[in-house]
Amino acid sequence: MATVEALVRDIASPQDLQVALAGGKPVVLHFWASWCEPCKQMDAVLAQLASDLPGIACMRLEAEAVDDVTIQYGVTTVPYFIFLRGGEVVDRLEGADPPTLTAKTTALARGGGVATSSGTAAAAASSAKAAGAAAAGGDVSGGTDSGGAFGRIKYLLSTWPVVLFMKGSSEAPRCGFSGRVVEALSKLAVAFKSFDILRDEEIRQGLKEYSNWPTYPQLYVRGELVGGCDIVTEMAGTGDLEALFREKLGPEYKAVAAAAVGAEAPPATAAAAAAATAAPTVTPADAAAAAAVPATTADSAGSVRERIKALLSGPSPVVLFMKGTPEAPRCGFSRRVVEALQAESLEFSSFDILRDEEVRQGLKEYSNWPTYPQLYVRGELVGGCDIVMEMRANGELGNTIREMAHRMDVP
């Protein structure tokens, strides 16, 4: 099969889209983000469909780079698909769902309703499924149902005594909650296997059903769920977490956990985790380049960090770095977070990163979080749109934010 780039046209501006829509073919438009692993998997599926169904035009648009189009179509999450015929929206699909994308795309190509049982649809579904599995590094012969996910989860839990399903890695957590659990484990010097659920949508969704626990991170010891961030940090504070490790792994729990992790890198210490969050890994080439940079550049980077710290330590405990303002968001992701915070009656201050390129770029390095919006409580990163919306859907956004603000106020 040809590459994704050869089969799926990139749209870089509203003008590009207008030209593409004028081509006359029905269009499948994929709104994606470079940081989103499921988007990459769905790109492979879309490319296969473009190859199998030449009567349609498949396109993709980076949601945060072309805000005007994202807002125009009401897109607030990625991956997201818009199906157009004659320039008009005829269907939508939210999330990484290869079978549904295949059915809707086949229906669009045929000009009728969704068809899931025809030979063409079945063939396209099979090839799209294979492409998606290959992109995810999975077995193309197996399904993507919860049974397959359960098997992989059981393997992870049976191989390592301490497993943390989290957002990001132990060296670079991608949300504040995951970072706090990593810090709690690091303070006890417990080696663990971390699994980045942002890189595997099948595990991310399957684990919720497996554990009957709706949020992340999730910590397991000897295959048993301990809990999420609040439970782990509370147990760490009372000494119950160490007692649990002694009970499950024995008096030499540190050695047992370290031996199981084996050749893998040990978990980051609290200081290392903080350093990883504050700055990216530096390669020899980076170091050489940095040596050639005038001191004024380094001073400038330092001043940006100080500005960010000042913004985060202001009078408002909750700070949202966003595109636009709460009254006039400039992207769907920012609007969605604002609406979620307002629905919970949470007071917050905001900073429009579109008005300050220095802060916009500096904050990505400061937080090790590549996109906007970014929500902070007392200087601690909560996360972006997906995390905020997941917390809201689980009914825990308001209480968690208030608890974090209160806990950080108490000396």
UniProtKB/TrEMBL annotation:
CDD domains linked: GRX_PICOT_like, TRX_PICOT
Key words, A-Z: Iron, Iron-sulfur, Metal-binding
Keyword Kinase: no
Span of domain Thioredoxin: 1-110
Positions of transmembrane segments: none
Family the UniProt entry places it in: Belongs to the glutaredoxin family. CGFS subfamily.
Protein name as it appears in the record: Thioredoxin domain-containing protein
Provenance organism: Volvox africanus
Lineage: Eukaryota, Viridiplantae, Chlorophyta, core chlorophytes, Chlorophyceae
